[in-house]
Amino acid sequence: MSSEMSDQALIRTASWGVIGGVVLTLFLILLGDINAGDVSERQRADRNTRYGASSGTAERVKTVGQINLASNTTVSSATTQVTATATAVIDGKKIYNGMCVACHGAGVAGAPRVGDKGAWAELIDKGASTLYANAINGVQGSSGVMPAKGGNPALSDDEIKAVVDYMVAQSN
Predict the structure, then answer these.
(1) Residue range(s) defining the domain that contains residue 100
(2) Who's near 138: CB < 8 A, 6+ residues apart?
(3) Which of 24, 44, 98, 162 has its CA 20 to 30 A from that of 6?
């Protein structure tokens, strides 16, 4: 019976502790609210001057200048130059060595090996436009399978054409 009494006493003590904590919290909230209402008008005006509406913050953080692209023709010409430079820099050999060599270097899945003039002769006879179309769109033939863009959809059509030109030059 004494263990039941001690359990009940523990529950009663814990309950009073929780109730006391809630009452203390409510008292502190009420005390803070009452104290906040005692701020004098002068103190409130001082706070507004330092931190609030009339502090001039908007004036201090406004933009210094504006960009007017309509009258600036050098921006568009610079963009054109960068685009032209980027197009001229496509390196078919680099792309081939990074991706295409996996199949065309070993002849995987019926891929014609670069440098094998006999395997490439028939393909070259079909014309560059057919080679480009097959490399860009992919082809599935009796001799093998070529996924579209060599399996890398991030490559542009111009990059694929540069790789085809490189492989043809090495195999012609």
Answers:
(1) 90-171
(2) 145, 146, 147, 148, 149
(3) 24
Of 131, 129, 104, residue with least CA distance to 116: 104
Q: Is residue 65 part of a domain?
A: no
Q: Answer yes or no: is 68 within a domain.
A: no
Q: What is the pLDDT along the chain (172 residues), one digit of tens a residue?
A: 556 668 888 999 999 999 999 999 999 998 887 777 666 677 767 766 666 555 566 666 777 776 666 666 665 555 566 555 555 578 888 888 888 888 888 888 888 888 888 888 888 888 888 888 888 888 887 777 888 888 888 888 888 888 888 888 888 7
End-to-end CA gap in the chain? 103
